[in-house]
């Protein structure tokens, strides 16, 4: 006996190949959530570094600025307004330190051009370029105290340099005792001791330089100065900006060791810099609030000088 077929049990035969229905993955179900995670990922990765900067840099900076408005000695902890800043700018030693900052700004192009030109010669593979790379970087690994002690011996009034000058008929020069000369000598020693690091940064920038641009300049008959101005400088604009800012910061904040060993701020206070003045006020005079005010002024100087230099460099690169 046959069982009658119902309409539900009868299925039409497929007329073509069947296509499986794709399953939606969890990510496909929430595209907005995936995009949100991608947007937040950089902030999550930067959060630890930003937290360290906030706790170890910005927060102490704010505390120092706040401390600069308090008093020293009998007025310790009391709010004194701008009294510390008035005393700062009335102090001849601090005004001399600010003049020396202006001298550093004027000498900065020389401090940047020296490693830049040497890196250019090394990149163009002058004979012995590998040896030069090691020799130029070697002073960067020496302690400022060691460098200062070495040059104290070389530049002494009865030292080897004056003996060499005497052999050619030039009288002895008081390199570190002349107020008009001592600061230039210390800055020159600092540049010699530190330009190796800037040289490495320039060489890293040259690694990203398009060699075809140099080949095109050579084919067009461009001289070396023209190649540097129209090809190398525009191509390394970011590297130059970085070296300028870091070199300026180093000259303002990393010369204490040389100053302490070579001149101790003399002669007649002619080699004072803000960082040395800060150490004198904090370490010898026991005036931390005044030292905090000087630190705040130094920070503002570095900020303004850095921004102005970056602006000028960008304008120069656009013109080149």
From TrEMBL:
Protein's membrane topology: Multi-pass membrane protein
Location, primary (coarse class): membrane
Ranges for region Disordered: 1-34
The ABC transmembrane type-1 domain, residue ranges: 98-309
Location(s) in or outside the cell: Cell membrane
Similarity remark: Belongs to the binding-protein-dependent transport system permease family.
Superkingdom of the organism of origin: Bacteria
Cross-referenced CDD domains: TM_PBP2
Species whose genome carries this gene: Micromonospora rifamycinica
Key words of the record: Cell membrane, Membrane, Sugar transport, Transmembrane, Transmembrane helix, Transport
Protein name: Multiple sugar transport system permease protein
Keyword field contains Disulfide bond: no
Bilayer-spanning residue ranges: 40-59, 101-124, 136-157, 181-209, 242-262, 289-313
A GO biological-process term: transmembrane transport
InterPro entries: ABC_transporter_permease (IPR051393), MetI-like (IPR000515), MetI-like_sf (IPR035906)
GO CC annotations on file: plasma membrane
Compositionally biased intervals (Basic residues): 24-34
Keyword presence, Cell membrane: yes
């Amino acid at each position: 006996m046959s069982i009658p077929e119902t309409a539900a049990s009868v299925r039409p035969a497929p007329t073509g190949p069947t296509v499986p229905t794709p399953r939606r993955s969890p990510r496909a179900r929430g595209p907005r959530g995936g995009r949100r995670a991608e947007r937040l990922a950089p902030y999550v990765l930067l959060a630890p570094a930003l937290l360290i900067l906030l706790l170890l840099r910005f927060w102490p900076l704010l505390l120092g600025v706040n401390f600069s408005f308090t008093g020293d000695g009998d007025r310790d902890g009391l709010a004194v307004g701008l009294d510390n800043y008035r005393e700062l700018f009335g102090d001849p030693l601090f005004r001399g330190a600010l003049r020396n900052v202006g001298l550093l700004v004027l000498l900065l192009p020389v401090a940047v051009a020296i490693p830049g030109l040497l890196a250019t010669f090394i990149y163009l593979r002058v004979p012995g370029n590998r040896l030069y790379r090691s020799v130029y970087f070697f002073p960067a690994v020496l302690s400022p105290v060691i460098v200062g002690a070495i040059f104290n011996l070389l530049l002494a009034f009865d030292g080897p340099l004056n003996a060499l000058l005497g052999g050619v008929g030039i009288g002895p020069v008081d390199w570190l005792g002349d107020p008009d000369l001592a600061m230039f000598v210390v800055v020159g020693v600092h540049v010699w001791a530190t330009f190796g690091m800037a040289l490495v940064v320039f060489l890293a920038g040259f690694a990203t330089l398009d060699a075809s641009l140099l080949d095109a300049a050579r084919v067009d008959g461009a001289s070396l100065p023209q190649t540097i101005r129209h090809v190398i400088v525009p191509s390394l604009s970011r590297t130059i900006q970085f070296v300028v800012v870091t070199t300026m910061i180093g000259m303002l904040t990393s010369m204490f060791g040389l100053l302490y060993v070579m001149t101790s701020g003399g002669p007649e206070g002619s080699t004072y810099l803000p960082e040395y003045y800060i150490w004198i006020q904090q370490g010898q005079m026991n005036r931390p609030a005044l030292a905090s005010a000087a630190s705040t002024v130094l920070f503002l100087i570095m900020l303004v000088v850095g921004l102005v230099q970056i602006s000028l460099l960008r304008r120069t690169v656009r013109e080149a």
